[in-house]
């Protein structure tokens, strides 16, 4: 079916390099902020029941001492991720570690393949016999 000038196929619209954003911005009538200013916010529902808001004004009060203290670095010092992006980066870094792969292989063998861990025991008899032979063949003074 021939397309009219300016038409974009559905596949290109949804998977192309930013076509969807370009088309939507070309035909946008208002930004969300502007829409709210002109028309107000929509009603809010929770559990199919309306949630009335007395006011759009907020009552957030900042703790001046905490603001003056500056950025919080304790999570950085402990190596704890503060957001999803940092968690993903830490997971990728961990996955590149050979120790991590060895541990995962060990857990896979144990829990999925139900393999019993292999324990290597050195022969105790050879050392014991050596000790006994040394005592028996020790020259007496």
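Sequence proposed for the structure above (141 residues):
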């Amino acid at each position: 079916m021939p397309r009219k000038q300016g038409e974009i196929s559905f596949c290109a619209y949804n998977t192309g390099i930013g076509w969807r954003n370009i088309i939507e911005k070309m035909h946008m009538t208002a930004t969300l902020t502007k829409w709210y200013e002109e028309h107000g916010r929509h009603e809010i529902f929770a559990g199919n029941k309306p949630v009335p808001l007395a006011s759009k004004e907020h009552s957030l009060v900042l703790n001046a001492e905490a603001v003056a203290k500056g950025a919080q670095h304790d999570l950085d010092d402990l190596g704890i991720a503060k957001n999803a992006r940092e968690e993903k980066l830490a997971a990728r870094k961990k996955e590149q570690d050979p120790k991590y792969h060895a541990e995962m292989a060990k857990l896979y063998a144990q829990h999925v393949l139900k393999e019993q861990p292999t324990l290597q025991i050195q022969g105790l008899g050879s050392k014991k016999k050596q000790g006994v032979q040394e005592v028996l063949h020790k020259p007496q003074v």
